[in-house]
Structure formats: structure tokens, C-alpha cells
Fold this protein.
Amino acid sequence: MIKTINLPKILDERGNLSIIEGESHIPFDIKRVYWIYDVPGGEFRGSHALKDTDEFIVALSGSFDVVLDDGKEEKKFPLNRSYYGLLIPKLVWRKIENFSTNSLALVVSSKFFDADEYIRDYDQFLNAVK
Ligand code: TYD
């Protein structure tokens, strides 16, 4: 299920702190963490779906839009705070665009990297979700 999730935010005069614990704040065990940064203006990332991997994405810095498509409808999720994120379940086509200068996208994933997990062809994706 696609949804945004609010993360704990520990307010402190010394600076705030937020947390992601696997199977607690997000509904899967964390196997991998990666981040996307130094994205040139106008570029986009993604444009694929993952067969059996759930992911959770947070704008640790700056802002960007995550466009999700479940095969029926497309919806845009602007992310611009480090204390909430977007749950992207398996078999959802995602594109990340409109990166602001110096934005940093953190992605936590339910699986180790596996190139065979990717569906990069949109028609193949539509067949897979049918
Ligand atoms: P890709 O997932 O296509 O990038 P994005 O969806 O953000 O546009 O990954 C880009 C390249 O990085 C591709 O060659 C696979 C490699 N990669 C890894 O080796 N390990 C990883 O965990 C990820 C996410 C990508």
C-alpha cells in the first residue's frame, strides 16, 4: 500500500533527530540503504518498478517529487522534510523528479541489490500488475 509515514522527531535545542527502525516505523526489515545526491537540474531518477522489493524514501535534505503509478493511476508525492517518507511497495512504477539543488534522497530497501528485481519496461510492468 502506497502511503506517507511520519517518523519520530526528537526536538532538541541542539538540533532535531529522526529515526527509522525496520519493522517498527516502516513495515519491513531493512536490508539495504542507498542515497541519491548531486542530481543535476532537470534530471530524473527511477522509471522502473521492483518485482518483490519494498522501499521507503525520505528527503533528508532539499526536495523532490516521487511520481508513483500502480498500473491504474499515477500520483505525485512532493517530499521536502526529513521526518516523513513515502512507502513504495513492490510492483509500483516510480519516477523521482524535480530535485532541488543539494537535495538528498535516502532510500531504505527490504532486499539486497538484485538486478533481476527490476522491471524497466513500462508495458512489461503493466502485464506484471494485471
Ligand atoms: P538504478 O536503480 O537504476 O537508479 P535509479 O532508479 O535511482 O535511477 O541504479 C543505478 C545503477 O546503480 C545501476 O547500474 C544499478 C546500480 N545499483 C547498485 O549497484 N546497487 C544498488 O543498491 C542500487 C540502488 C543501484
In short: Residues 32, 34, 36, 45-46, 48, 113 surround thymidine-5'-diphosphate (CB under 6 Å). The CA atoms of residues 63 and 80 lie 4 Å apart. The first helix runs from residue 122 to 129. The chain has a mean pLDDT of 98.
